[in-house]
Amino acid sequence: MSTETETEINAEPIVLTDEASAFLERVEADRAANAGPRFRVNTDRFTAEQGHYYSNFAIVRTPNYDIPSQKGYGPSTAVTIADLGDGRRYTWWVSNTFEQERLVKTLDNAISNGDSYPFEVEFVRHKKMSKNGNEYNVLSIAITNSGDDVALPNVPEDQLEEWIPEDDE
């Protein structure tokens, strides 16, 4: 239900300043230039086996922490990694709490020391024995390079899928 005052306010067109008009023209030109299909990466699943040494991989960006389990377990962490040999992209699901904590601590320490993504890493998943005799999972991970010093190969074409974003208007 509208009042007479609202009708009067909305009846007059709003005059844009020159700066506002120029900004809107740039936004529209940019939108037109970027219209059409875009591509997103369809990653493969990476399974890090216990006792295996992994190298020549890079963590591409900040992992997605606290993804709820669809099977009723605790939250998982999705880590996008790239094979530095062929550029193939993978999602590495880290679900063990001890391994998640080690991953977070390693990445947080690197960032606090001024390093940035991507992070070239080497790692091993293994087991250790606690003082009371229980076995637990361990992620031993080291960052060997970071930021501009990491040459990420292009994503292989078979991992690119066309994506047309919805118009936000």
Main β-sheet description:
7 strands, mixed
Task: Report helical residue fraction.
Answer: 10-25%
The tally of beta strands, per DSSP, is: 9
Number of separate structural domains: 2
How much is the average pLDDT?
88
Query: Beta-strand level of the residues, as a percent range?
Result: 25-35%
Q: Any idea what the shape is?
A: elongated
The N- to C-terminal Cα distance equals 25 Å
What are the segments in which pLDDT stays under 50 over at least 5 consecutive residues?
A: none
Structural write-up:
This protein has 169 residues and is of the alpha+beta class. The chain folds into two domains: 4-33, no CATH class; 40-159, no CATH class. 24% of the residues lie in helices and 35% in strands. The strands form two sheets. Strands 2, 3, 4, 5, 6, 7 and 8 form a seven-stranded mixed β-sheet that branches. Strands 1-9 form a two-stranded antiparallel sheet. The two termini are 25 Å apart.
Topology:
Blueprint lengths: L3 H8 L6 H16 L4 E4 L2 E3 L6 E7 L4 E4 L8 E8 L5 E6 L2 H16 L6 E11 L5 E12 L13 E4 L6
Parallel strand pairs: 2-6
Antiparallel strand pairs: 1-9, 3-5, 3-7, 4-5, 5-6, 7-8
Structure in a nutshell:
This protein is α+β, with helices and mostly antiparallel strands. The protein has 3 helices and 9 strands; from the N terminus they run H-H-E-E-E-E-E-E-H-E-E-E.
Kindly list the characteristics that best describe this protein:
7-stranded mixed beta sheet, 169 residues, 9 strands, elongated, two-stranded antiparallel ribbon
